[in-house]
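Note to self: keep these together.
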Amino acid sequence: MDCYHYLAKKEFKDDEMIVAIKRITDNRDDMLHDHDFVEIVYVLEGGGVHNVNGVEYPVQRGDLLYINYGCTHSFKIPENMIAFNLMVKLDYFNRELNDPKNVNNIFSLLALTSFEEIQSEIDKASPLVSFYGEEQEEIEFLLKKIESELENNYLGKSVFLDSCVNMLLTNIFRKILVSDNKDNEIIPAEIIEYIQTHCDEKLTLKALAEKCFYNPSYFSRLFKKAYNTTLTEFIMEQRLKKSCDLLRTTELSVDEIAVRCGFTDKTGFYNRFKQKYGCTPGDYKKNS
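Structure:
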């Protein structure tokens, strides 16, 4: 592991640096290693698999790994991937906690009083968090500003850099430690309304996920958790409800209604309808 300590530490160009950043742009298959600083990996493009303490985490754009000091980890990148690799020495956290001027620092806001307490809480949680939509844009903006500040000697560099790092860490700690983590995200009401209004059209998981800036697999899991049904079944439910409305209120034929409700297979429509309501669409129309 010594070679990895050397390769990482060279990113800190002098002893005064406590924050460093670089972009990962190459394919790699690392050996397991660890560091005596915190490492934050955020995926900009592509994907790969990161092993942290023996657990494999598939990652893609918007995913962030908070790798605590002393954690063993390695990266497998089978495809082209671009990622930010932010390295933060422990001195940064200790400085923030011990400086009396930092009354409102991120650790006070999180009601944690020591660096060890912070790291202990983080170690209990998953190191992987995902950002979507506007929050994804904010994370990428902060990382790019940190990169720019470290590469240049702008006026007020240290103050601006500290602000960006603090905002970044606050966003990460909120995701990991506080109640607004991804398990509590909800499906936007506009998406449900859109499905109900356009249920007669071809609706795909990918297209709907993109409307609320989620990746498809996460959108699918979130939808199932929120509505206790799959997206496919929910769309089918809306189509059947619409068919009932048309059967009751129009003189359209059953076949025409099937088409207007998004059913391309007449037999499938009949079977689904009878399974749901216990009668055929024709009988439902007569009784209505």
